[in-house]
Each structure stands twice: as structure tokens, then as C-alpha cells.
């Protein structure tokens, strides 16, 4: 299975770094940073700001940021359409949404729905994936929760989702 990650509007450098580390561990092909997600080695920033972000991301990425094919995208909608035209299936990691396109990560239905080229879209820590991307997403996966909390931290959820999808 091939995997591309999209980190859209992830606020925390530490979450970005942790996701990058997991992505490298699961063999992701690429990581696309969009929205206001902090960029690694962002040439558009002043050097002292770029160095600060790089240090913060590195604290949790632990070098994975140097091993992955990572790039920024200013128009994630068009990029997702482009990837779909190349045969990639766009999967959103989400919970608590009303749609018939959402499947439990551990559910038997998901195995028949997932293809071997996945773009996994991760959204903002509190509000999730931007609603404007919903129509582009082929299906959504959710992680079943047993406790009282409604969601996991985005970096934890990303690791769980990558493991679950790669295990299908």
C-alpha cells in the first residue's frame, strides 16, 4: 500500500513533528503541508523564525523531517483533485460527522472500500478537516472511542489511522 499524508491546518509544531515521525515509520511516500500548518525549512520565513519552527518540529520528529519527501501546497483542493486523477483515493480522518461515507477503522466494511494508493487527510486539532474539503474526500475513517473523550490528539490519531489502514 502507498500512502501520502496531508496535514491541513495543524497548529502545533509538536503535532507536526510527531506525525512526521510516524509517517516515516509507516513508509509514507510524501507529506503535504497545507493551510497554516508549520512548514519545515520554510524559505519564506525570516531565518530566526524558520530556525525556531525547525527546532520545535525536530523535538518530536527526531530527524524524520529530513528523511521524508515533504512539501507545502498553497491550493490543497487542486492538489487533491490532481492526486485523484492519478488514481489516489482521498481518505479523511474524522469523527462525529453525519455521512454515509464514514467507516470505523476496525470495521469489516472498510477493507472492501480502501484501495492501495491512499491520501490520508488530517485536519485541525479541534475542528477537524475543513468542510470545504468534504466533497473531494472519497471516504472518511473514524477511530472507535470507548471513553468519555470525543477524540484523540491529532498526532496520536494519525498513528492509529496509519497503522489501521496499513494493516488492512
The CATH architecture designation of the domain at 2-11 and 29-37 and 70-166 is 3-Layer(aba) Sandwich
The rounded Rg comes to 15 Å
Mean pLDDT: 97
Shape: globular
Which residues form runs of ≥5 with pLDDT under 50?
Answer: none
N-to-C CA distance: 9 Å
CATH-assigned fold name of the domain at 2-11 and 29-37 and 70-166 = Alpha/beta knot
Describe the sheet with the most strands: 7 strands, parallel
Percent strand = 15-25%
| Proportion of helical residues | 25-40%
Secondary-structure element sequence?
Answer: EHEHHEHEEHEEH
CATH C-level category of the domain at 2-11 and 29-37 and 70-166? Alpha Beta
Instruction: Describe the strand arrangement of the main beta sheet, using strand numbers.
Output: 3-2-1-6-4-7-5
Number of helices: 6
User: Can you tell me the CATH superfamily of the domain at 2-11 and 29-37 and 70-166?
Assistant: SPOUT methyltransferase, trefoil knot domain
List how many beta strands DSSP finds. Answer: 7
Explain what this protein looks like in three dimensions.
The chain has 168 residues and is of the alpha/beta class. The protein has a domain of 116 residues: SPOUT methyltransferase, trefoil knot domain (Alpha/beta knot, 3-Layer(aba) Sandwich), CATH 3.40.1280. It is built from 6 helices and 7 strands; from the N terminus they run βαβααβαββαββα. A 7-stranded parallel sheet has the order 3-2-1-6-4-7-5, with helices on both faces. α1 links the parallel β1 and β2. α1 crosses α2 and α1 packs parallel to α6. The longest helix has 15 residues. It is globular.
Amino acid at each position: 500500500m502507498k500512502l501520502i499524508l496531508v496535514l491541513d491546518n495543524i497548529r502545533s509544531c509538536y503535532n507536526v513533528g510527531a506525525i512526521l515521525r510516524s509517517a516515516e515509520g509507516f513508509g509514507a511516500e510524501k507529506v503535504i503541508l497545507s493551510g497554516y500548518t508549520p512548514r519545515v525549512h520554510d524559505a519564506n520565513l525570516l531565518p530566526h523564525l524558520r530556525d525556531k519552527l525547525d527546532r520545535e518540529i525536530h523535538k518530536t520528529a527526531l530527524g524524520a523531517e529530513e528523511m521524508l519527501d515533504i512539501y507545502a501546497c498553497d491550493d490543497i483542493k487542486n492538489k487533491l483533485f490532481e492526486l485523484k486523477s492519478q488514481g489516489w483515493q482521498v481518505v479523511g480522518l474524522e469523527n462525529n460527522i453525519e455521512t454515509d461515507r464514514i467507516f470505523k477503522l476496525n470495521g469489516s466494511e472498510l477493507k472492501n472500500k480502501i484501495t492501495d494508493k491512499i491520501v490520508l487527510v488530517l485536519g485541525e486539532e479541534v475542528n477537524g478537516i475543513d468542510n470545504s474539503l468534504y466533497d473531494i474526500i472519497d471516504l472518511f475513517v473514524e477511530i472507535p472511542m470507548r471513553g468519555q473523550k470525543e477524540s484523540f490528539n491529532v498526532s496520536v490519531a494519525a498513528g492509529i489511522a496509519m497503522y489501521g489502514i496499513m494493516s488492512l
